[in-house]
Design a protein that fits this description.
The complex is a heterodimer.
Chain A (H helix, E strand, L loop, with lengths): L60 E6 L14 H10 L4 E3 L7 E3 L13 E2 L4 E5 L16 H10 L10 H6 L16 E5 L2 E5 L5 H7 L10 H8 L17 E3 L12 E2 L3 E6 L20 E6 L3 H10 L3 E3 L5 H10 L4 E4 L4 E6 L9 H10 L2 H8 L5 E3 L32 H10 L13 E6 L3 H16 L4 E6 L1 H9 L7 E7 L7 H8 L18 H11 L4 H17 L3 E7 L1 E4 L4 E2 L2 E2 L5 E2 L5 E2 L1
Parallel strand pairs in A: 1-11, 1-12, 16-17
Antiparallel strand pairs in A: 2-3, 4-5, 5-7, 6-7, 8-10, 9-10, 10-11, 13-20, 14-18, 14-19, 15-19, 21-24, 22-23
Helix pairs in contact in A: 6-7, 8-10, 9-11, 13-14, 14-15
Chain B lengths: L1 H28 L5 H6 L5 H10 L6 H15 L12 H36 L4 H15 L2 H12 L22 H35 L2 H8 L4 H29 L3 H6 L5 H10 L3 H29 L1 H5 L1
Helix pairs in contact in B: 1-4, 1-13, 5-6, 5-8, 5-10, 5-13, 6-8, 7-8, 8-10, 9-10, 10-13, 12-13
Classes of the chains: A alpha+beta, B mainly alpha.
Chain lengths: ~600, ~325
């Protein structure tokens, strides 16, 4: 899971509960959800799914305002929604998702998507062969042609502790032959028979997941002669002092003296200019970046409460952060064509500790699930435009979402009423052995929650109230979000419940949503993303079966079943499916990456 | 006088070490979140966590950690590396400092130029319309939250956002050496935000202090000697009344040099304050720790300077 963008305004933004909530939740609105579908009460132009990726005008300079800075520009380390905007236009990973789709994978540096029919997936799904474009060149001063050895080296260096890649372990370490103990050196399962061919040998039939994972920035080629000396430094200096572009843009100054110093000042600004060695003819898939803009100036810093109005009233500008509630409200009311809402931008849920009383009892978990007022939580977050009630764990825009029940979700009594149902909850408390319908056991339930913002504080109170209604004595610890995550991640802390934990998938594979958060394999002694310490053999088996299914349609079906079973066991309580707003100036022809929270795509966005 | 200065400097060093110790305890020993988990990210292997723990020196006892940290600061000026950008903290602070100095020193000049004359005039014309008007206005400025006042000025005067838009707004700041004219104009609004609220405090403080001083016997003696009223006020009254103002000035200037957080954030001025607030948002403990130590150093240094000035203005201090 990559880091998502945040919006923390120093100036108190007025709390917003969009009046349009009265138009009704869309949770009963069908079960499509395979993309950013029109399910919200949006005005013209607001639905990101309707964006056109063609017909832009060449030229101009885009001003990008962001309160948050970049974390890593090195494609090997980059794992942050903000980073991705700059990394995907300066680098060329093997594959990439189309900006106007959450599910359509396209070749980027690769010539085609490997499949069994084109000979790209062989050996029963255990070998992947990838052919790369022959005439892609590095930006100056490297200038030479990219080879498959560069891609192999890029993948191998993800295992280097100095690079510190955040998803190597999740998708590659156990999937590629010989990668489990790699530390940045050659991996026996990665071979390059010629300069344009890469062969990856897998430990199991997990080709589909690995191919999708190769759409992450880490598969972008890097020249070993430049990078290896920089990787000796802990942490690596690649992306800090030097960078080598292959995409349509590069950092200003990287062509001179091999330094990015003139175009990038950490925490301050980033200037992207055209890469003179880039050629639009080196693409063979639907992804053909038009690169309309001459230059992109990204200013970092400032307060979101000021940035929002600046962008809405300004020219040539986009807001890179999540707009504040006040900006969303102003845009919705006064500038409806200057804001988009992208569905499928992650989800939030409350984890329950499945490993110890009281929540090791499935009926108690179902009772808590039934009584949580998810509608009230949505309201606190800003209303129906910014989220919809969560009804399961695979969220909209991901394979398996429809198969798990779409927006209404699996049909269980505890999942039926998103505004909470105390009567149903009491029934399950009785089944759990509490005849009064209220918990009468000993002890206190420890809830660790974030105190970042008024909406979080309000959500915490909703959770506390709903638990108290069921008879639990609640010890609510409200702490900084980073503290919350480190406490909930540590099994030794024995936290009973963590509300409003967020998850953002890495690509269109339910594996990247369900497996890290609900599998017993994800539990380690000191840190885990399986906050609820879910150890359910049936669920593990269902996920493993789905993960190793080669046929994508069947895999989606199997993931849907696993998701339904997770709801059946009430392993956690879904709160909401997130929608992500993005704001821009009136003369910007906006194209956002629907697979990346709708963040601006600099290669497709243009000025009117 | 020399002994007094040396004594103050030594106490300043002791204070600074104590501050470093407390911030070290807060951010290294009792951090709310485990720095290793924060730096390693969610998908980290135990091996990577061990590597980071070793890199940060967290495998040592806390006393050794403090000694190494202190030694790093004193001998090498090493404040560690940012968790978020992985750059040296000292470099980040050094890069941010000129903007903060520009903002703070300019604002300090402005609030002194406004606050001191207004305070003197209000005191010597006590009860007049001028006094009442000046104190009402200053009370208004004192009562305004900085972020709110900043937003009001932006929505009134900033280009592209203001009703009467003619001054550069948020994000327009450039360094002095890059473009002196633009540097000056881009700082007018931030200077006004800081200076008007501070000037109000100083005028009220000096007015009260001067009113007290003007009632003292030595003022009556000075008048009895036939000195001009202007000389009585400026040489005897203000000189005595200004000492508490100087003390507050030292604390304010030192504190602001450590980062005018809200003003820098709202105007997107990349100073120490913005660096600090960004680091807080990222749970970037080394940067928070570094900026805290820097702010403490500025307060300590400013207080030493003020104490020396105080001794110069008031000889009784030297004797004590």
């Amino acid at each position: 899971m990559r880091l998502r963008r945040s919006a923390t305004a120093i100036a108190a933004a007025g709390f917003l509960t969009l009046a349009v909530a009265a138009c009704g939740s869309s949770s009963s609105g069908g079960s499509s959800g395979s993309s950013a579908t029109v399910k919200l009460p949006l005005k013209a132009g607001e639905n990101a799914a309707s964006e056109s990726i063609t017909g832009g005008k060449q030229g101009g300079t885009l001003q990008v305002l962001s309160s948050e800075g970049f974390q890593h520009l090195d494609p090997g380390s980059s794992y942050f929604a903000i980073d991705y905007g700059a990394v995907y236009v300066t680098q060329r990973p093997l594959f990439v998702f189309m900006p106007n789709s959450q599910t359509e994978l396209s070749p980027d540096l690769a010539k085609e998507i490997p499949t069994a029919s084109n000979g790209g997936i062989t050996n029963g799904g255990k070998t992947v062969t990838i052919h790369i474009q022959p005439n892609v060149k590095y930006a100056p001063p490297v200038n030479r042609t990219v080879t498959s050895q560069d891609v192999a080296y890029a993948i191998e260096r993800m295992a280097d502790p100095n690079v510190g890649n955040g998803y190597w372990t999740s998708y590659f370490a156990n999937a590629i032959v010989g990668a489990a103990k790699a530390k940045g050196g050659p991996i026996s399962g990665i071979q390059t028979p010629n300069p344009t061919t890469l062969v990856i040998h897998l430990t199991g039939t997990v080709a589909n997941t690995v191919i999708q994972a190769l759409s992450l920035p880490g598969s972008a080629p890097v020249p070993k002669s430049v990078v290896a000396p920089l990787d000796k430094h802990a942490p690596t200096n690649f992306g800090v002092t030097q960078l080598t572009a292959t995409g349509p843009y590069m950092i200003q100054g990287e062509d001179k003296a091999n330094s990015i110093a003139s175009g990038y000042t950490a925490g301050k600004s980033l200037t992207l200019v055209r890469n003179p060695n880039w050629s639009a003819s080196t693409y063979t898939g639907p992804y053909k970046p038009p690169a309309y803009l001459n230059q992109i100036n990204i200013s970092i810093g400032g307060d979101p409460s000021v940035i929002g109005p600046q962008v809405l009233k300004g020219k040539n500008m986009v807001e890179y952060d999540t707009p504040t509630h006040a900006t969303v409200q102003e845009a919705y009311q006064r500038y409806p064509s200057q804001i988009t809402f992208t569905t499928g931008a992650g989800d939030h849920y409350m984890t329950l500790n499945n490993s110890k009383p009281p929540f090791n009892n499935v009926n108690i978990r179902r009772a808590v699930y039934a009584n949580l007022n998810r509608d009230a939580i949505i309201k606190e977050k800003g209303g129906v435009l910014t989220g919809e009630p969560g009804t399961h764990f695979v969220y909209p825009g991901t394979a398996g979402f429809d198969q798990a029940g779409g927006y209404p979700g699996p049909n269980y009594p505890w999942n039926a009423h998103t505004s909470g149902d105390l009567a149903v909850a009491k029934q399950y408390m009785k089944k759990a052995g509490y005849p009064s319908g209220k918990y009468t056991g000993n002890g206190t339930v420890t809830v660790v929650a974030s105190n970042n913002g008024q909406d979080e504080l309000a959500i915490n109170q909703i959770v506390k109230q709903d638990l108290t209604q069921l008879g639990f004595k609640v010890n609510l610890a409200q702490v900084d979000q980073s503290v919350m995550y480190t406490k909930c991640q540590n099994p030794k802390q024995e936290v009973d419940a963590c509300p409003d934990g967020g998850w953002l998938r890495d690509f269109n594979d339910p594996f990247s949503i369900l497996y890290p958060t609900l599998s017993s394999a994800a539990i380690t002694p000191t840190v885990t993303n399986n906050f609820g310490l879910v150890k359910n053999a049936t669920l593990d088996s269902m996920m493993q079966k789905a993960h190793t299914e080669v046929d994508p349609t069947k895999a989606a079906q199997l993931w849907g079943q696993a998701d339904r079973y997770a709801v059946n066991q009430a392993v956690s309580v879904p709160e909401d499916f997130d929608n992500q707003p993005n704001a821009f100036a009136s003369n910007v022809k906006w194209v956002g990456d629907l697979w990346n929270e709708g963040s601006v795509n600099f290669a497709y966005t243009s000025l009117k | 006088m020399a002994a007094f200065v040396i004594r103050r400097i030594l106490w300043g060093i002791v204070t600074l070490v104590a501050v470093i110790f407390v911030t070290f305890l807060l951010f290294r020993i009792f951090p709310g979140a485990d720095p290793v988990t924060l730096l390693a990210g969610k998908g980290a292997t135990p091996e990577r966590e061990r590597f980071i723990r070793q890199e940060l020196g967290l495998n040592h006892s806390w006393i050794v950690q403090f000694w190494l940290y202190l030694k790093g600061i004193v001998l090498h000026g090493n404040l560690g590396f940012s968790f978020f950008t992985e750059r040296p903290v000292l470099g980040e602070i050094t890069a941010a400092l000129p903007a903060t100095v520009s903002l703070t020193v300019g604002a300090a000049v402005l609030w002194f130029v406004i606050g001191i004359p207004v305070g003197i005039l209000s005191a010597i014309r006590r009860g007049s319309i001028w006094d009442r008007a000046a104190m009402t206005v200053s009370l208004t400025f004192v009562s305004m939250p900085v972020f709110w006042f900043a937003l009001i000025l932006i929505y009134l005067f900033a280009k592209s956002l203001g009703l009467v838009s003619f001054l550069p707004g948020p994000g327009s700041y450039v360094g002095l050496t890059a473009d002196p004219v633009h540097w000056f104009t881009s700082l007018i609004l931030p200077w006004l935000v800081l200076a008007l609220t501070q000037a109000a405090i100083y005028s009220r403080l000096l007015r009260g202090s001067l009113l007290d001083a003007m009632g003292e016997d030595y003022i009556r003696t000075a008048r009895a000697k036939g000195l001009r009223e202007r000389t009585v006020i400026m040489k005897h009254g203000v000189r005595s009344a200004i000492t508490p103002v100087l003390t507050v000035f030292g604390i304010d200037l030192g504190g602001l040099l450590g980062g005018a957080v809200i003003t820098e954030k709202i105007f997107s001025i990349h100073g120490v304050g913005l660096l600090n607030i960004t680091a807080i948002g990222n749970s970037d403990f080394p940067v928070i720790q570094g900026t805290t130590v820097l702010a403490a150093a500025f307060v300590v240094i400013a207080n030493i300077v003020v104490d020396i000035l105080y001794a110069y203005v008031d000889p009784r201090v030297r004797v004590q």
